[in-house]
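thought: user wants a sequence for this fold. calling inverse folding tool.
action: design(structure=
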């Protein structure tokens, strides 16, 4: 997701701060936190630079929580969250509700006949399908399309969007500060009384999204095969968009069950940043979000990945630009080695000064682009440390793979010099400060760190963790985690005959 907000005046002050403690103290003066009786947590950041407020709803649910046989369901509900409520988006709610329920009755008949397998009657299936289409058309006839979006935009709302990842689902937009109460009403209503209208029409939209992001993209297909191969049992085995056959069989009742299980107040964290009065925010939070009924938190247990004991490889046929990924198993974000792995990544892939770029792109010109990523696809559970390359014309993925191994061995055998170590730590600090330069960035980061570490202050103490990393630590984690037995290699190859 991309955030288009100007940097505010706080950034120069942060850049001038002499210590992490200074950074943290400057924010503690501006941050107010409170938790409602139902368990919903708010983080409010006062910044009166402009009459604008950014809002971020962080749901601690993502594709890792998709039920078996229903991959992509977390993503599907994200789409449903924009469909409105009984009072927003309907021409006649009682009639629409009756028509939606009638759709499910017909759909149940269709599934019951299909479930007969070889004994199913094709003529009966065709007749039920026609009845189902008619029932869907009737239900959709009561819909005021995009009404929720229209209400937001007509009141000055900007950048309304959402995204579903492996570990979380995030909703965000901004309003003029004189419309803050409208946000409290709208955001609370769509999670208090969501209506799953146009469900099957939106299911087709989600299916098309998968077609565009994965099936029509050589890198999309490669990444999907990478995680499916690297993870035999862990929840990162599936991409957030879900498998095609699962999407095509989504049912509205399943999405409603998912919502009731995971969209509970104690599983939500809301960030508000900008021209806001914390006392007023708390009053409105109690008034609107206090209506959400408290429900038990969902189980956090997930199948653990068995120890990988040998290299895995997967290839994807593609006439497009070749691409190579080396993926090494690594622990989750709570590992004591997390900071050292982040510094190792910066040493390898710190823009044009990183080892990989200088060697493979600048000097040897064997790759059009190359780099690394310290954590993929998420951090809630053990994940992957990636190295990747897009070979130059006339150079192969095999050549690039050998060169990446050579660089890895260099990091293992030779300690990084202190000048490089100091430079990457400075850039890690600067990257954090840039993220805090906008209201949206602030709301996102503070919510994320609060949920994932139990305290948003980890956002700043993490800088201390980076500062403590030594050259010996970088060498040690390279030797510990970048090992052949924990490696999955994924690359594209040009099919016989080449591009058509």
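)
observation: tool returned 500 residues.
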């Amino acid at each position: 997701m991309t955030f288009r907000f100007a940097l505010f005046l706080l950034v120069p002050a942060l850049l001038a701060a002499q210590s992490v403690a200074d950074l943290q103290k400057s924010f503690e003066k501006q941050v107010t936190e409170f938790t409602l009786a139902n368990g919903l947590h708010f983080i409010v950041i006062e910044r009166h630079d402009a009459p604008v407020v950014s809002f971020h709803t962080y749901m601690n649910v993502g594709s890792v929580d998709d039920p078996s046989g229903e991959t992509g369901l977390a993503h599907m509900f994200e789409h449903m969250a924009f469909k409105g409520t009984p009072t927003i988006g309907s021409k006649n709610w009682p009639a629409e509700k009756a028509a939606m329920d009638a759709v499910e009755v017909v759909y149940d008949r269709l599934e019951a006949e299909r479930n007969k397998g070889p004994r199913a009657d094709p003529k009966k299936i065709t007749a039920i399908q026609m009845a189902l289409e008619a029932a869907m058309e009737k239900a959709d006839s009561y819909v005021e399309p995009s009404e929720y979006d229209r209400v937001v935009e007509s009141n000055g709302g900007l950048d309304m969007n959402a995204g579903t990842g492996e570990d979380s689902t995030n909703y965000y937009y901004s309003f003029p500060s004189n419309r803050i109460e409208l946000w409290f009403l709208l955001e609370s209503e769509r999670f208090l009384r969501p209506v799953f209208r146009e469900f099957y029409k939106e299911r087709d939209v989600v299916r098309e999204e998968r077609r565009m992001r994965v099936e029509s993209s050589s890198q999309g297909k490669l990444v999907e095969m990478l995680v499916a191969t690297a993870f035999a049992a862990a929840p990162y085995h599936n991409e957030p968009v879900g498998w095609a056959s699962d999407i095509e069989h989504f049912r509205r009742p399943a999405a409603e069950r998912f919502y009731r299980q995971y969209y509970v107040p104690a599983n939500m964290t809301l960030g508000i940043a900008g021209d806001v009065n914390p006392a007023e925010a708390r009053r409105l939070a109690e008034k609107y979000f206090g209506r959400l009924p408290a429900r038990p938190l969902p189980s956090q247990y997930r199948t653990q990945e068995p120890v990988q004991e040998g290299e895995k490889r997967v290839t994807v046929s593609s006439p497009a630009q070749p691409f190579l990924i080396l993926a090494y198993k690594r622990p989750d974000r709570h590992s004591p080695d997390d900071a050292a792995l982040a510094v190792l990544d910066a040493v390898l892939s710190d823009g044009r000064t990183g080892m990989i770029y200088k060697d493979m792109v600048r000097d040897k010109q064997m790759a059009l682009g190359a780099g690394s990523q310290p954590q993929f696809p998420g951090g809630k559970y053990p994940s992957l440390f990636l190295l990747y390359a897009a070979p130059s014309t006339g150079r192969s993925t095999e050549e690039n793979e050998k060169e990446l191994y050579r660089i890895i061995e260099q990091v293992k055998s030779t300690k990084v010099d202190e000048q490089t170590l100091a430079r990457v730590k400075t850039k890690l600090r600067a990257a954090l400060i840039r993220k805090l330069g906008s209201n949206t960035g602030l709301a996102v980061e503070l919510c994320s760190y609060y949920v994932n570490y139990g305290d948003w202050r980890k956002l700043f103490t993490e800088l201390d963790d980076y500062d403590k990393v030594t050259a010996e630590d970088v060498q040690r984690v390279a030797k510990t985690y970048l090992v052949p037995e924990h490696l999955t290699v994924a690359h594209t190859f040009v099919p016989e005959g080449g591009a058509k």
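thought: summarizing for user.
answer: Here is the designed sequence. The chain has two domains: 30-90+143-291, 312-493.
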